[in-house]
Structures are given as C-alpha cells and as structure tokens.
Amino acid sequence: MDGERRSRRQLSTGWRLLRYAKPYWREVLLGFLCVVVVSLVNLYMPMLVGRELVDRVLGEEKSAFMLNILAVALVFLFLVRGLFLYGQAYLMAYVGQRMVVDLRNEIYQHLQRHSLSFYERRHTGEMIARITSDTALIQNSVTNGVAPLAQQLLLMSGALVAIFVLHWRLALLTLVVFPAIAYAVNRAGKEIRAVTRALQERVADLTTVLQETLSGIRIVKAFTMEEHERKRFAQQNEANFAASMKSVQITATIVPLVDLLFIVGTALVLWYGGHEVLEGRLTLGGMMAFLGYLAAVASPVTGLSGAYALVHQALGAADRIFALLDTEPDLNDLPGAVPLPRIKGKVVFHQVGFAYEPGRPVLEGINLTVEPGEVVALVGPSGAGKTTLVNLIPRFYDPTEGWIEIDGFDIRRVRLRTLRAQIGLVPQETVLFGLTVRENIAYGRPDATEEEIKAAARMANAHDFIMALPEGYETRVSEAGISLSGGQRQRIAIARALLRDPRILILDEATSALDPESEQLVQEALEHLMEGRTTFVIAHRFSTIRRAHRIIVIEGGRIVEEGKHEELLARKGAYYRLHELQFHSATKGV
C-alpha cells in the first residue's frame, strides 16, 4: 500500500513538474526530434557494419568501390549524428535552465507573500537550499537525465526489434536477464530518491549554519567562538558527506551489477550464436550485427540506471519545492479588500490581543487611540510587547483578538500594499542592501528624482557624509552597510523613510545603539521625519521619550499607564520605576 501511494505521488510530482516545461514545448519538441535522429543513426550502425560491410561488400561483392562509398557514408552519418547531438544537448539544457529560472522566480515570489511568523518558524538556509540546490538538481535532471532517458529507451526498443528480426531464438536467450535488470534499476531508483531527500536536508542544514555564521561574524569573533563554529560547520559538512556517499554507493552498486548481468547474457549469446554461425544458420555479418545491437541494448540499460537516478533525484527535489509552494501564506488580502486612500493617520486599537502561540498571549485588551500627527512613545521592560504592538499596524501579524482601524478603516479589510505604502519603519538594526547609496535611499520609491533623493538626505543630515564618500551617491554599500558607521546607516534609513513620505511612522529603538554625537544628528533627522506624522516611538532613552506628546507604559502585554513625562513621574508608578532604574544605571556607569 505504501509503495502504491509512493508511486502515485511520484507520478503526480512528475506531471506537476512537466507543467514548467509547457511554455517551452517547441524547444522540447525539437530536442526530442534530435533524440530520435541520433537514436536512428545509432540503430543503423550495426546493420551497416555487419550486413552491408562484412556480408555484402567484403563477402559477396568484394568491391573496393562500395567499400569507399561505405566509408564516406559512415563519416556522413557521424557528422549528422554530431549535429543532432549538439541540438539535443543545447535544447534540453535551454529547457532545463528556463524551468529553473521560472521555478526560482515562483519560489521567491511565494516567499515574499508570507508573513513574519512564517520566517520565524523556518531557517533561512532551508529556504536558500530550495531556491539553489533543489532547483539545480531539477535542471541537471532535465539536461542530463530526461533526454538521455528518452534516447536510451528508443535505442533499446529499436535494438530489441532488430535482434528479433536477425535471429529470434538468439534474441529470446538474451531476455533471460532482463527481469533481474528491471528489478535492480527500479529498486535503486526508489532508494536514490529517499537518499536524495535526506541529502537535500543535510544541504539545507549546512547552508543554515553557513548563513548564520557569516551574517553573525561580529558576534562569533567578539565571543571568540571561531573554533566552536568551525566544529559545528564540520559536523554538518560530515553529515552532508555521509548522505552524499550513500547516494554514490547506490549508484556505484547498480551500474556494475547491471553490467555483470549483461556480461552473462553476452556470454550466452556468444556461445549459442557461435554454434549458429558454425552450423551455417547465421552469417558472420549477422552475428556481428546481432552483437552490435546487443551492445546497443546493454548500453541503454546501464545508461538508464544513471538517467533514472537523475530523474528520481529531481523528483525528490521537486517534492520539497512543491511542499514549500503548497504552504499557503497566513496573511493575505481578504476577499473584497479595498485600496486604502491617502490617510490622515488616526490609529485606533479595539480590545486588541495577540499570541504567537495559542494560550500564551503577548498582548491583551489593548485599547488605544492615537490622533493624526501625534507622537506616542511606547515604554516598558523587555518582552512587554512593545514591538509586537507596532508590528500589528502594518499587518506583519494580525491580532488574535480585536481589531485595528486607521482613519476608520479596519486594516484587515484594505489591500496590504496600499496600507504599507503609507507606513514608514526605522528599526534599531538598519538594513541596507548591496546597492548604491542612492538606490538604498530610493528603495521605497525607485522612481524618485535625483533632487528628491538629495532633499531627503539633507533633511536626514546625511548629504554631507554621502558627498564625502568615494563616489558620493553612487558609492556601493557593502553587505548590511558594514562599511558605514551606525549613525550613517541610520541616517540613510531615515532618508529612505522621508522619501517615502509615510503618514504613519514607526521608530523601533532607532537611536539606542549610537554614540552621543551620532545620536544628536540622528535625533535632529528624526524630528524632521516625525513632523506632521503619526509616530510610534519605542525607546529606552528618556531623552527621546520625553519629546513625545504622550507616553504609553506597557507591562505584561497590557497598557498600565499613559500620560506626559512629568505627569507619569508624579504618579510614581510603573513609569517612575523605569525612569529611576535607568537614572541609577546611568549614574553607576559614570
């Protein structure tokens, strides 16, 4: 029963994979036409050498002229075969590469549709492996597996017909070993697919370790964990090696096994066929042709095992890719969602609750109204739910209880793109891409003019240091902006937000990691950015918080206090305790 279900799944995966070749049916058709021509030439060769050359030209006619004609014909046939082999290789490689391009685009687009919770449940390396190594296996199968598989099947079928035409009794003798070969190839294919699945898991684990280590290289070096990470990588590398060798072991076993079975068949043919020649029931040329076709049967069967292995590797990789593509995004535009018009920026939380895991709420009973243009500071101990609260506004997550309105619109009922287009985010860990400074600033508005980009940079106190860079705005930023200081990266991020001109602004610890001089420059830029915008500020530094129109104190996922800086200090409640804790910490630091 399990075998039957597995076969049905393989067939389903195969048909689904074939759909990616459908747009390139012309190339596929031409490729298989080349396969047919190459197979026909290969099939004609034993007859040309055996019957035409040995029996007729060298035996019956003994004609030097016909010998010359046959030599020229042989060269011509190999020329034709070579041209069509080129066509086969090029066209199938083209189809394989195009399928991979389409698959990678689809996987990447699918990943873009998922919410943050999807990425929190998965390793980045796993998803990278789906886009890179899994799709590469499919490309390799199409290029080096599918066409050779078809060619070998055609060659084997034609050769089988030919040996029955030449001598049916001798042909029956050769078929004794075929059931054993078919069983061995089929069994090996199933094992290879299972091993390939395990191998790709190990590749994903290896990629994950590599990605984590390289992206966190500063932490690795700061904590002198190079040796630990070396051992961790080596461990995953060894696991990858073991899985690879298991696949090699299966492939290395099946090929000589098939060869051995055919040698047994060939020995039987030589023994029985030799007697037939001696008895005059078979010509020497016919015997040579028969052996040629037998080789043409043996070669495809051994080739089939390799091609079959590649196809099963592709099916194993496709299973994993389709499992990812079949994962539905948990956050989409609802049916009937409307575009969100240009907003003023009034945000209302109605009894909002949220839990990452059922039964473990992070936010409970949040009721909050923020007026257009108001600056609200969210304060509280780490883990209180501040970042989670602001992440609900651009719908990085949806509340598990209650709802949020912006200018009277339930944000679940508006189109995501039109919602997020009016929200700006400046996080603590600034993300800059490996693009030019100009492209990083214009990231949210690729159509922005040079003047608009520079105006945003000036307002963000970034223009002067940008102009001092080697190529000014055309300077390429290294990965994660590592060639710039923290304050410079943050000001570029502020310029990016200014250029987007959001109506709602979220500042998540935007100055917490900066030195006093950089903080002052960034703070000035932030004041430009916040002007006239509804702003949510998450900050621990009270120099930033006290500028807010209102302070919201969150503890244990609930709002416990709200008011202005002086009012909250006078109450001597939660805010007062936080203030005193930071004040005494600062004093001790001095």
Summarize the topology:
Layout: H1 2-18, H2 25-61, H3 64-112, H4 116-120, H5 124-166, H6 168-174, H7 178-215, H8 217-222, H9 226-278, H10 284-325, E1 347-357, E2 360-370, E3 375-379, H11 386-391, E4 401-406, E5 409-410, H12 416-420, E6 423-426, H13 437-441, H14 450-459, H15 463-467, H16 486-500, E7 504-508, H17 516-530, E8 534-538, H18 542-545, E9 550-555, E10 558-563, H19 565-571, H20 574-589
Order of helices and strands: HHHHHHHHHHEEEHEEHEHHHHEHEHEEHH
**Integer-rounded radius of gyration:** 35 Å
Overall domain count:
3
**Major sheet: order of its strands?**
6-7-8-3-9-10
Calculate the terminal CA-CA distance, rounded to whole Å.
74 Å
Which fold name fills CATH's third level, the topology of the largest domain? ABC transporter transmembrane region fold
Specify the structural class: alpha/beta
Averaged pLDDT:
79
Keywords:
single chain, 590 residues, ABC transporter transmembrane region fold, Rossmann fold, six-stranded mixed β-sheet, 10% strand
Could you explain how this protein is built, in words?
- This protein is of the alpha/beta class.
- The chain has helices at 2-18, 25-61, 64-112, 116-120, 124-166, 168-174, 178-215, 217-222, 226-278, 284-325, 386-391, 416-420, 437-441, 450-459, 463-467, 486-500, 516-530, 542-545, 565-571, 574-589; strands at residues 347-357, 360-370, 375-379, 401-406, 409-410, 423-426, 504-508, 534-538, 550-555, 558-563.
- It has three domains: 10-325, ABC transporter type 1, transmembrane domain (ABC transporter transmembrane region fold); 340-422 and 534-590, 3-Layer(aba) Sandwich (Rossmann fold), CATH 3.40.50; 423-501, P-loop containing nucleotide triphosphate hydrolases (Rossmann fold).
- The protein is 65% helix and 10% strand.
- A six-stranded mixed beta sheet has the order 6-7-8-3-9-10. A four-stranded antiparallel beta sheet has the order 2-1-4-5, with no helix packed on it.
